[in-house]
Design brief:
CATH architecture of the largest domain: Orthogonal Bundle
Number of strands: 2
Number of helices: 12
Bound molecules: protoporphyrin IX containing FE, 2-acetamido-2-deoxy-beta-D-glucopyranose
Order of helices and strands: HHHHHHHEHEHHHH
Distance between the termini: 39 Å
CATH class of the largest domain: Mainly Alpha
Length: 332
């Protein structure tokens, strides 16, 4: 296994951030604050970080799973751990959540936290911290995560139908994001999360054959890349057979190169390509790719961090709302 990604530097950066308790973003919003566990569970953040690190050391691809888990948690009932609940009709069982992974990492961190400071650290916060650590350990930016979220008491598959689909248009997704308080630049920045991770063929193979009944592939796919995608996802490939990197040639590295792939027709998910074709979002794709300097001082790294802070504050429960679960997959 290539271990170069686990550079001492990345780990030190995270540790430094964990102790940067009067961080820049302490006023983030909605009753959460940086260093919330400083007195009640001093090692909370370092326990999450070391747990994430040990799982990523065994399987680097799990970082992407953790980042996506936090997104899917926040978009339904806010960032309240509702995605973690087990059950035949729980949120987790809804179709848009079928490929989620990394639950075992959250469970592992929770059991270590319960040993050290029982009943103190919420599963919602573990998800937010693990997403931050996953990005940092993949070579991306590091930031201070405000904490103090409480775990929710509702988890229903029927509430998950509004999660974004890769077949939706830019205008529909702008609407979905703005209904959660996220702007157009947040939408493009957060889509940049696809700089790591993978997708099942079923989310894009319709682009490869008889796209919109034209008989051919989606013409926006780079013709040099198309045969490789067709080989990975043959017609009628069963769900779960193959996984394809969302960021061609750079699936493990959190970098801005993803926006070059989008510009060059190498996006795998349809929506990721559409943000280059819509004028309201193209300016950010160009800027983040470093090809243009249309927006001076705007970079993928800082925009992504700002967008993550906004996303991880969606409809959070604080104070005496909700509960602190003892086991993340079950209500108390
Ligand atoms: C903008 C709308 C979005 C759409 C339509 C979308 C769609 C998808 C789809 C279809 C997959 C493949 C899932 C699978 O095969 O299991 C995926 C993977 C992923 N998504 Fe998104 N996504 C969106 C936004 C986001 C956001 C906001 C984040 C996080 C900030 C994110 C993070 C990820 C990651 C990291 C993966 C790879 C997961 C893995 O390797 O297991 N996505 N997304
Ligand atoms: C593409 O789909 C259309 C509509 O379903 C169908 O009429 C046509 O025969 C298909 N073309 C190919 C090449 O499969």
């Amino acid at each position: 296994m290539a271990a170069s990604f686990i550079e001492g530097v990345s780990i030190l950066k995270i540790v430094a951030v964990s102790f940067l308790l009067d961080g820049l973003y302490s006023g983030a919003s909605a009753g959460i604050s940086s260093g919330f566990y400083f007195n009640s569970c001093t090692t909370a953040e370092s326990i999450v970080t070391s747990t994430v690190l040990s799982h990523i050391s065994a399987d680097q691809t799990i970082a992407a799973g953790l980042l996506r888990l936090h997104f899917h948690d926040c978009f339904v009932h806010g960032c309240d751990g509702s995605i973690l609940i087990d059950g035949a009709s729980a949120e987790k069982s809804a179709f848009p959540n079928s490929g989620l992974r990394g639950f075992e990492v959250i469970d592992d961190a929770k059991s270590k936290l319960e040993d050290t400071c029982p009943g103190v650290v919420s599963c919602a916060d573990i998800l937010a911290l693990a997403a931050r650590d996953a990005v940092a350990l993949s070579g991306g930016p590091v930031w201070t995560v405000p904490t103090g979220r409480r775990d929710g008491l509702i988890s229903a598959a029927s509430d998950a139908s509004n999660l974004p689909s890769p077949m939706e248009s830019v205008s529909v997704l702008k609407q979905k994001f703005s209904s959660k308080g996220l702007s157009t630049v947040d939408l493009v920045s957060l889509t940049g999360a696809h700089t790591i991770g993978q997708t099942d063929c079923r989310f894009f193979s319709y682009r490869l054959y008889n796209f919109t009944s034209t008989g051919g592939a989606d013409p926006s796919i780079n013709t040099a890349y198309l045969p490789q995608l067709q080989q990975l996802c043959p017609p009628g490939a069963a769900a779960g057979t193959n996984k394809v990197a969302l960021d061609k040639d750079s699936q493990l590295q959190f970098d801005a190169g993803y926006f070059n792939n989008i510009r060059q027709g190498n996006a795998v998910l349809e929506f990721d390509r559409r943000i280059f074709e819509d004028t309201s979002t193209q300016i950010y794709v160009d800027t983040f790719s470093g090809q243009f300097t249309n927006l001076v001082g705007v970079s993928f790294g800082t925009s992504f961090v700002n967008a993550m802070l906004a996303m991880s504050s969606i409809e959070v429960k604080t104070g005496t709302d909700g509960e602190i679960r003892r086991v993340c997959s079950k209500f108390n």
